[in-house]
């Protein structure tokens, strides 16, 4: 007689906690040439916190069963929409600016090596430069972008999506 079993998880992970027990995160570096000085530390700590909250894995300093390393490799602010001025002597202005951040992640699954990956994850947020400056919204935008990138990393590495 054959039996089937179905495993459900509220976080959607496909981690076998009988064989995968730990994870480690090396400090991510900022190779983008932009952003605030604490951006790399913010990303590293946010990644650790997310996995601690959403898995049963224990965070270890080195050589976890799941290992994360990488770098922030893109930090750009580009105009997305122009606003025409009524005066033909004045140039058009940016009506919307986009902050884009990319993070290259090297994920090593030491137990199930076929799930290891090296990939860049990126996300963006827009803001209106006519009503606010990047200095006023930068930290909030970075936090929101990191949340999206970390969710994508989680989905790509340990989630069943």
UniProtKB/TrEMBL annotation:
Q: Which GO terms describe its cellular component?
A: outer membrane
The record's listing under Pfam families reads: LptE
Q: Biological process (GO) annotations?
A: Gram-negative-bacterium-type cell outer membrane assembly
- List, alphabetically, the InterPro entries matched: LPS_assembly_LptE (IPR007485)
Q: Which domain of life is it from?
A: Bacteria
Its protein name is Lipopolysaccharide-assembly
| Native species | Indibacter alkaliphilus (strain CCUG 57479 / KCTC 22604 / LW1)
């Amino acid at each position: 007689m054959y039996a089937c079993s179905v495993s459900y998880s509220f976080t959607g992970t496909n981690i076998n906690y009988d064989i995968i027990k730990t994870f480690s995160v090396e400090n991510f570096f900022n190779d983008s040439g932009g952003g605030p000085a604490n951006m790399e530390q913010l990303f590293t700590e946010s990644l650790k916190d997310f996995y601690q909250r959403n898995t049963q894995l224990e965070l270890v300093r080195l050589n976890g069963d799941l290992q994360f390393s990488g770098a922030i490799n893109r930090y750009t602010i580009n105009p997305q929409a122009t606003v025409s001025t009524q005066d033909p002597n004045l140039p058009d202005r940016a009506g919307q600016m986009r902050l884009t951040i990319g993070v290259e992640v090297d994920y090593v699954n030491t137990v199930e090596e076929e799930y290891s990956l090296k990939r860049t994850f990126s996300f963006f947020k827009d803001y209106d430069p006519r009503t606010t400056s990047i200095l006023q919204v930068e930290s909030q935008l970075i936090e929101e972008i990191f949340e999206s990138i970390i969710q994508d990393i989680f989905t790509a590495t340990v989630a069943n999506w």
